[in-house]
Amino acid sequence: MSTDLRDVLHERLDHLTPPVGDLDAVRGRGRRLRRGRQGAVAGLAAVTVAAVVVGVLALGGGGSDGGERGIDPVGPLDFSQGLRAYADPGYVIHLGGREFPADRLEYLDTDAMATPAGVLFYAHGVPRLLAESGDVTDLEPDAARTGQHPTAKVDSTGAVTAYGAVLDGDLVVRVRDLDSGELLASRSVPSGTVVDAIDDRMVFLRTDAGTTVWDTVADRVEEVAGPQTRVADVRNGVLLYDGPRPTGPGASAYRLVKGAIDAQLTYDGGHVLGWSSRLESTDGGAPIVLDQKATFFAIDTDGSVLAAVYGHPARVYDCEVPSGHCALLGPLTTKGGDPVFIGVDM
């Protein structure tokens, strides 16, 4: 975006009165974003928190390939209480106890994933990790520079992450322990494959033909469900799905719970986090009720719930599980629109 265009946009938009928060409208926007991501990883759907993260971190440095800016180290971060990563898109991002201005956004075809070891993101198809030290490293230095990638997911049992990269012309899904750096498993997959979940090193892969589960220890793949079913999340042996009930042999080992595609499971698989401060139990037990009525939610990397209360400014809380007690993290401006969390469509 040129300086002149940015100035014009600011001149026109800064004088507009922000609309009153509308939960139904927010849900509608979320559904539209998800439909866009299912069809293609481009356009508006690519302007996610991941793009904000990378844009904020892409400060200074000359590109080595005619246009990509270098990503400078940002200095030490604190992930001891989770990443606590949230943003006002295009203006401010909070990450690891620090705040960064987002004054140099750059479009990158990328989705980010918050992991206990840091933020995993894609830069032109190359998976990279922003660690607690503030340094950024390439997870696959030999990966081809491409717009194709199957997203990334992190296992709730630790910093084990499944991600994709194009290596030697093939789309490959790799499972790596980000704490140790050890490569645990690798498998070539069809073009267009998406990583939907990972649980105890079982990786759920989706193509146009349906969803399969890859047992990375036995290196065996089994069918989970057909193309009308979407796996929303898998945690601690609980599979949250949207659409027809999974009937493939790969689903038989899981407790199946029907839910919305944009919902998440708590790390123990015991409750479902959706568009509500009330987390319903997956086994008929008591719900978890947050003591803040919020609008936007995410499971943080330490298992707590991040919740944002819409306003001008918004307020962001870190809520304990299972007590539901919420502690204020601070205010968040909403100049760029709705508050957002890394790697979460909610």
Any key phrases for this structure?
single chain; 346 residues; mainly beta; Methylamine Dehydrogenase, Chain H; 4-stranded antiparallel beta sheet; 3 helices; 11% helix; globular; disordered N terminus
Quick summary:
The chain is mainly β. The chain has helices spanning 3-13, 23-39, 49-57; strands at residues 86-88, 92-95, 98-101, 113-115, 118-123, 126-131, 136-138, 152-154, 160-167, 170-177, 183-188, 194-199, 202-207, 210-215, 220-225, 230-235, 238-242, 255-258, 264-265, 271-273, 278-281, 288-289, 296-299, 305-309, 314-319, 326-332, 340-341. It has a single domain, classed as Methylamine Dehydrogenase, Chain H (7 Propeller).
Can you walk through the features of this model?
- The protein has 346 residues and is mainly beta.
- The protein has one domain (3-341): Methylamine Dehydrogenase, Chain H (7 Propeller).
- It is built from 3 helices and 27 strands.
- The chain has helices at residues 3-13, 23-39, 49-57, and strands at residues 86-88, 92-95, 98-101, 113-115, 118-123, 126-131, 136-138, 152-154, 160-167, 170-177, 183-188, 194-199, 202-207, 210-215, 220-225, 230-235, 238-242, 255-258, 264-265, 271-273, 278-281, 288-289, 296-299, 305-309, 314-319, 326-332, 340-341.
- The strands form 7 sheets. It has a 4-stranded antiparallel β-sheet with strand order 3-2-1-27, with helices on one face. A 4-stranded antiparallel β-sheet has the order 4-5-6-7, with no helix packed on it. Strands 8-9-10-11 form a 4-stranded antiparallel β-sheet, with no helix packed on it.
- Strand 12 (194-199) and strand 13 (202-207) form a beta hairpin.
- The radius of gyration is 19 Å and the shape is globular.
- It starts with a helix and ends in a 5-residue tail after the last strand.
- The model is unreliable at 1-70 and 104-110 (pLDDT under 50).
